[in-house]
Write a structure and sequence with these properties.
The complex is a heterodimer of chains A (189) and B (391). Chain A is mainly alpha-helical and 189 residues long. Helices cover 67% and strands 2% of the residues of chain A. Chain A is built from seven helices and one strand, in the order H-E-H-H-H-H-H-H. Chain B contains 13 helices and 18 strands. The termini of chain B are close together. In chain B, helix 5 (171-180) packs across helix 6 (197-208). Helix content of chain B is 28%, strand content 21%. In chain B, the strands form four sheets. In chain B, strands 3, 5, 6, 9, 10, 17 and 18 form a seven-stranded mixed sheet that branches. In chain B, strands 13-12-11-14-15-16 form a six-stranded parallel sheet, with helices on both faces. In chain B, strand 12 (213-218), helix 7 (221-229) and strand 13 form a beta-alpha-beta unit. Chain B has two domains: 2-170 and 337-390, Alpha-Beta Complex (Quinone Oxidoreductase, Chain A, domain 1); 172-333, Rossmann fold. Chain B has helices at 39-45, 95-98, 112-119, 162-165, 171-180, 197-208, 221-229, 242-249, 273-283, 292-300, 322-327, 339-351, 370-379, and strands at 2-8, 11-17, 28-37, 56-57, 61-69, 82-85, 88-89, 125-126, 143-146, 154-155, 189-193, 213-218, 233-236, 257-260, 306-309, 331-333, 363-366, 387-390. The chains are: A mainly alpha (189), B alpha/beta (391). Chains A and B meet through helix 1, strand 1, helix 4 and helix 7 of A and strand 1, strand 2, helix 6, helix 7 and helix 13 of B. Strand 1 (16-18) of chain A pairs antiparallel with strand 2 (11-17) of chain B.
Chain lengths: 189, 391
């Protein structure tokens, strides 16, 4: 990858000779893959809802499929963002909705029950991946009640805060006197 | 040499790269002795600022020793000189530089066509930043090429540790300029949003400039404790109402001067619906900045007051209350820092022992640990406030 980035460097600027290790974890890569999958699926659901409902024998539910498509796209964008953990949990929730919608179509008179069963299987598999990725990308921020170091002695003023305040007051008073003096001079005819 | 290189969102690596070379007679090369991670580096880490390319070297807070000078540096720098490198690259000759408006130097952005398109006019070239500001390799590295080195440097004396001088490159003059822009008077209350490194410097600067009362707003106990140590009254916005406390502390009048040291990534909280909406819009790229702090400042600032913006904004901000801003007769002053305008005075204050900016450093690690420290700094782990890297 860095070979490509070297091509676009301005002539004379340092180029990468040897890449260092990346801190990206496998879970980050999984989150990225799921994010793009989510967007792809969402686009299909939004643009071709009829194909989806026909495949599942659930004609008449096109609006619902479209809405699910929008949800998939938003969850996908979130999964690709800095807030990927929230995006992945949104996907886990969405998987639940998908499963519920599919189960509602699993009726004795639906000739496409086989497709619905297959879709349910896929949703189950993806849900496991979503859950795993969501678990593994938990933010590493310390909890709110975590013990923290405090810095009560770091004033940054080697001579103390009071000396700063005193100096500032003296400068202000001096400036004030000068202003008065200049004002008096201006009043002199 | 080793350098911290941007490879994409949340992906910074310590790579081996070719050494920098003199490209222009006005260049110099320095051996970096200390560099730091800045809060604005996190905007790049998150890929919120457009115009980064994989392979870009990070870092714009750097100092070191001159090891090579170009023929056009004209004796202003010599091998062995110890310099702090301001984050803004300046020519010292254009109309803006002559006015002291160094951060909008008209010459040094080598990709000015991009800046002209995006900002309307170019601004100065910056180290280790987006290609909108020239895409110059940064100083989180063992060596750094300093373009226009005859003007772009702050010569510093031996005998003062790096840690006291390094922040002349950015955060100290940035906090200082934020306070100077407020025209502080002895009766003023100055409210400062954000107690990160720039906020801490702004607190001290406001006191040095004679503010009557400084109020610092944040939610992290370690940063609030540091703000308090620096003489500020603190407000924890997670446990207190900022509006109510500011009213209380100013007899209902509001602070005369407000400083934004937060910028485009303000905290998101369920109790502040505008922050949730901003975050959602930022995620789908419908808005580039989260300007909650600007909205709050406009609302609480005393009529006729001044709002000074030191925090970085990158593009478009929604729902700014321009009605309140206009009717209250507020003044807003902003800008990247005109570093060299302030550094003579600030260096003298450090030499005189008036201030020691090293108080803000909480972590010092080898350069190789830089990528991890980006995460630690971002996540506020281990009570991290400021990271210094040693190549």
């Amino acid at each position: 990858m860095f070979h490509f980035s070297n091509i676009v460097r301005t002539k004379g600027d340092p180029k990468i000779v040897q890449g260092g290790p990346s801190l990206k974890q496998p879970a980050d890569q999984l989150a990225r893959a799921l994010g793009w999958f989510s967007i792809g699926l969402g686009v299909v659901e939004f643009l071709a809802p009829r194909r989806v409902t026909e495949t599942l024998g659930m004609e008449g539910h096109e609006t619902l499929v479209r809405a699910f498509g929008v949800r998939e796209i938003l969850a996908g964008i979130m999964s690709l963002s800095v807030e990927k953990n929230a995006g992945l949990w949104a996907r886990v929730g969405g998987d639940g909705l998908d499963a519920a919608a599919l189960l509602s179509g699993l009726t004795p008179d639906n000739p496409k029950n086989g497709n619905i069963a297959l879709a349910l299987l896929m949703v189950g598999g993806i849900a496991m991946l979503d859950y795993r990725a969501a678990q593994d990308t938990k933010p590493r921020r310390p909890p709110r009640d975590a013990r923290r170091k405090l810095y009560p002695n770091r004033s940054g003023f080697p001579k103390g805060i009071e000396s700063v305040r005193t100096a500032a007051r003296q400068i202000a008073a001096h400036a004030g006197q000068n202003e008065v003096k200049q004002g008096d001079e201006r009043r002199v005819p | 040499m080793k350098a911290l290189v941007w490879h994409g969102k949340e992906d910074i690596r310590c790579d081996t790269v070719t050494d920098p070379e003199i490209q222009d007679p006005r260049d110099a090369i320095i051996k970096v002795t200390s560099c730091a991670i800045c809060g604005s580096d996190l905007h790049l880490f998150h890929n919120f600022i457009p115009g980064m390319l994989p392979g870009d070297i990070m870092g714009h807070e750097t100092m070191g020793e001159v090891v090579e000078v170009g023929s056009g540096v004209d004796g202003k720098l010599q091998k062995g000189d110890r310099i702090v490198v301001p984050f803004t690259i300046i020519c010292g000759e254009c109309d803006q530089c002559k006015r002291g408006n160094f951060s909008v130097c008209e010459t040094t952005n080598r990709k000015r066509h991009l800046a002209d398109k995006v900002f309307g006019h170019t601004t100065a070239g910056l180290f280790g930043y987006t290609h909108l500001t020239g895409g110059y390799p940064g100083g989180q590295a063992e060596y750094l090429r300093v373009p226009y080195a005859d003007a772009t440097h702050i010569k510093v004396p031996a005998g003062i540790p790096d840690e006291q001088l390094l922040f002349l490159s950015d955060i100290f003059p940035t906090g200082w300029q934020a306070a100077v822009q407020c025209d502080i008077e002895p009766t003023d209350t100055v409210a400062i949003w954000g107690c990160g490194p720039v906020g801490q410097m702004a607190i001290r600067s406001a006191l040095l400039l004679g503010a009557n009362q400084v109020i610092a707003i944040d939610c992290l106990p370690e940063r609030l404790s540091m703000a308090e140590a620096g003489g500020a009254t603190t407000i924890n916005f997670e446990t207190e109402s900022v509006l109510e406390r500011l009213q209380e502390l100013t007899d209902g009048k509001g602070p005369e001067k407000c400083i934004d040291c937060v910028g485009m990534e303000s905290h998101v909280m369920a109790s502040l619906p505008d922050t949730l909406l901003d975050r959602a819009k930022q995620m789908v790229m419908a808005e580039s900045d989260r300007p909650h702090v600007l909205r709050e400042m406009i609302y609480v600032c005393r009529p006729g007051g001044i709002i000074s913006v030191a925090g970085v904004y990158s593009g478009l901000s929604d729902m700014l209350p321009m009605g309140a801003f206009m009717n209250k007769g507020l003044t807003m002053r902003t800008g990247q820092t005109h570093v060299n305008r302030w550094t003579d005075d600030l260096l003298r204050r450090i030499e005189d022992g008036e201030i020691d900016p090293s108080f803000v450093i909480t972590h010092t690690v080898p350069l190789e640990q830089g990528p991890e420290m980006y995460q630690v700094f971002r996540d506020k782990r281990d009570s991290c406030v400021k990271v210094v890297l040693k190549p």
